[in-house]
């Protein structure tokens, strides 16, 4: 291959983010290109969860709500996400799932106007569309989904809320957040950004882009563990005007006054609902602490170097795969996807060869290029094995066509 | 005291549930009477979480969704709750928080009729009332809250949904589930039961009572850990008729087909929303496994013995405390509450004396009598220390009046 194993190793040795790899547990021999779906285990999570379970829960028990500040975890962990997304610490909380947070923001944002349309993109991550259709049905609104290329043209005075995913889960195409937010705002539209495939890898400046509302996933590039709680961003000026449809006690102005009447908390806290999931929050906090010292600029520069190497190697050695991800950095995220009629089987054969990417129906194989812990040699090994699988037709073995529950 | 320490120890020795105590970590010297707020740590949770974190997440990574059946956790863990609440295994799932689950069921149940009223109890746990008021506002319904004694009389043809908490969080008063469910059903009303202060201690027979919908908490008597995910019950006949307002991808008929259109899953799965929180689910599963071999009947018989002993000891040795919990077993749950103008200070002084109960505003001190791991000597010790605090006026020390974030 044109980029040799020796060159890959040299690139790793010169990588300023290389020491961050040691903060993660990466199984021996495995090339993990799925950190955009489930981030790798931060080593610190093991000890931290152990302490939370054995000391805080086991010994301190209920007292930990105060003594270990369990009660402040949604805000504390949110504040650790803030610098990764260009937000102020008091503009981010961690709670619930991305789906549930999206519902809160959609209903709250729709309540700001009398307009009747929620606009989104056809082929957006489907949970976003389903949540939006549910919110629209409840509120008597219409959910309109436009093809990607037509979304901007559809921005108009009847639209209440524009819901977009910043980086597309499949193609990795990226919207221009600042330009679209401004264009929508000019038309009186509130935009909600789903940052699930951006946060922790792609540079984000929510404040600079004038973004008002956003949600994102805790278990992808943020390495919070399987099913980690999600985050929710509300720009300061909007915080006092939004009302959550999910009026749980943690969003109450005085949760421990136990009053029958609902009074929303000041600030973003009103977007909390039920009791915070302390074990999951602890794991996510460990994931975020693993970013300590890695600037967003450095992460993105590394992500781009990984992208160029991987793209080049695949182009040269796996010509059957058609890249559907834009080349230009400002037009994409930190994963790369390829089309192939047998993407599913190829993905399974790769897993058998200890290279983990993932399949996205109907014909896409997707690789996450996590800048925090991936190395250039990982990419070299992955393409080397993939080239062999394609060259030898290994993927045609019947066992690679067997589908599991999650594919 | 009339029930002596020697008698307490003899009662412990004769207790058929005594071996279950060894399944929990109970700090040396501490009397923990707050298992109805946060259950104690099941010893098995430590190893199980360790394995989930280090092996399933760390080594298996994304593959665990299939290989370790992460994807089936909401149903698998729900099926373990089923026998504790008198439900079929396919009628219970674990997901989200109690607040969020309540919202799903309220909106879904309201969608079954054109009626305009959600009826609940004044002084119900406030998150239930807040969630209901949010749902009512969204749907253009009225939330009516009636004093406890008047709830039944208010059952009428304009009520869509009756929302009641089976055992009251403060007084421990219990509603007659079978009778009220039947009376409501006769009037065409769907009842939602909140089982947060019942499940795991109080005998429940949802199927036998004709209950259609219920939610409940995972971190109280079920010992799932701080902020554990909650459960949700939908009786089989209703499952195909309910639609969740939170249409997350996990409730889709084909979550991995990635289609723009929403099609609800068959059965109770449609009530799932976002990605399941695997770490939290693992802890809850360990909590439920600790019930293995303890029948609901035996739990309740033990809970009653604990209640009688505690009630008797307090009546005799702490006459300043006024019990607000009914004596008769069928009228109450498994905690006991007392009124005192200085309940807050008494509670704090007890904590300083290593007896943990909790304070509920404005003037209640509450003790959870967890049948699975509490012993009679625990109760003797607690009352012995409380009697001394009251006798000596220790609670008057200024430090016991200092309020924390969570009180």
The overall pLDDT of chain A, averaged over residues, is 97
CATH superfamily annotation of the largest domain in chain A: Type I PLP-dependent aspartate aminotransferase-like (Major domain)
The oligomerization state is homodimer
Given this structure, which CATH class of the largest domain in chain A is correct? Answer: Alpha Beta
The number of helical elements of chain A comes to 13
Shape of chain A: globular
CATH architecture of the largest domain in chain A: 3-Layer(aba) Sandwich
Low-confidence stretches of chain A: none
Count of the domains of chain A = 2
Distance between the termini of chain A: 31 Å
Instruction: Count interface residues per chain for the largest interface.
Output: A-B, 92 and 92 residues
> What does the largest sheet of chain A look like?
7 strands, mixed
What is the fold-level CATH name, i.e. the topology of the largest domain in chain A?
A: Aspartate Aminotransferase, domain 2
Please, could you describe this protein's structure?
The structure is a homodimer of 407-residue chains. Chain A has 407 residues and is of the alpha/beta class. Chain A has 13 helices and 15 strands. Chain A has helices at residues 5-14, 43-60, 64-67, 73-85, 98-110, 126-139, 151-154, 177-186, 236-239, 278-289, 296-317, 343-352, 376-392; strands spanning 24-25, 31-32, 41-42, 92-95, 117-121, 142-146, 159-165, 190-194, 213-216, 230-234, 322-323, 335-339, 355-356, 358-360, 364-368. A seven-stranded mixed β-sheet of chain A has the order 4-10-9-8-7-5-6, with helices on both faces. In chain A, helix 1 (5-14) packs antiparallel against helix 13 (376-392), helix 2 (43-60) runs antiparallel to helix 10 and helix 4 (73-85) runs parallel beside helix 10. The radius of gyration of chain A is 22 Å and the shape is globular. Chain A starts with a helix and ends in a 15-residue tail after the last helix. The model of chain A has no long low-confidence stretch (mean pLDDT 97). The interface between A and B is large, with 92 and 92 residues.
């Amino acid at each position: 291959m044109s980029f040799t194993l020796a060159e890959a190793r040299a690139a790793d040795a010169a990588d300023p983010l290389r020491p961050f790899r040691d903060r993660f547990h990466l199984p021996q021999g495995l090339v993990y290109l799925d950190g955009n779906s489930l981030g790798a285990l931060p080593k610190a999570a093991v000890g931290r969860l152990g302490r939370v379970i054995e000391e805080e829960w086991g010994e301190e028990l209920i007292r930990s709500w105060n003594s270990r500040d369990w009660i402040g975890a949604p805000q504390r962990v949110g504040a650790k996400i803030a610098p990764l997304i260009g937000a102020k610490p008091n503009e981010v909380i961690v709670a619930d799932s991305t789906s549930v947070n999206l519902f809160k923001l959609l209903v709250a944002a729709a309540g700001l106007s009398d307009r009747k349309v929620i606009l989104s993109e056809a082929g957006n991550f489907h949970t976003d569309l389903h949540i939006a259709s549910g919110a629209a049905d409840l509120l008597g609104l219409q959910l309109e989904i436009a093809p990607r290329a037509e979304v901007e043209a559809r921005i108009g005075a009847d639209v209440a809320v524009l819901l977009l995913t910043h980086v597309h889960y499949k193609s990795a195409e990226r919207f221009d957040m600042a330009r679209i937010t401004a264009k929508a705002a000019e038309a009186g539209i509130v935009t909600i950004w789903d940052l699930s495939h951006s946060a922790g890898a792609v540079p984000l400046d929510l404040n600079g882009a004038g973004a008002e509302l956003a949600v994102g996933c805790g278990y992808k590039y943020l390495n919070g563990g399987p099913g980690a709680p999600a985050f929710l961003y509300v720009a300061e000026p909007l915080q006092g005007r939004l009302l959550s449809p999910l009026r749980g006690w943690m969003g109450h102005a005085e949760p421990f006054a136990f009053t029958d009447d609902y009074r929303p908390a000041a600030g973003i806290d009103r977007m909390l609902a039920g009791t915070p999931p302390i074990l999951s929050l602890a794991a996510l906090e460990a994931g975020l602490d693993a970013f300590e010292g890695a600037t967003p600029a450095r992460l993105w520069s590394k992500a781009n170097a990984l992208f160029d190497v991987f793209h080049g190697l695949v182009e040269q050695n796996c010509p059957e795969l058609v890249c559907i991800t834009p080349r230009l950095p400002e037009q994409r995220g930190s994963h790369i996807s390829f089309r192939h009629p047998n993407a599913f089987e190829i993905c399974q054969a790769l897993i058998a060869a200890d290279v983990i990417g993932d399949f996205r129906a109907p014909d896409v194989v997707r690789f996450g290029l996590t800048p925090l812990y991936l190395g250039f040699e990982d990419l070299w090994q992955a393409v080397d094995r993939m080239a062999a699988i394609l060259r030898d037709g290994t993927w045609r073995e019947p066992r690679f066509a067997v589908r599991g529950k999650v594919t």
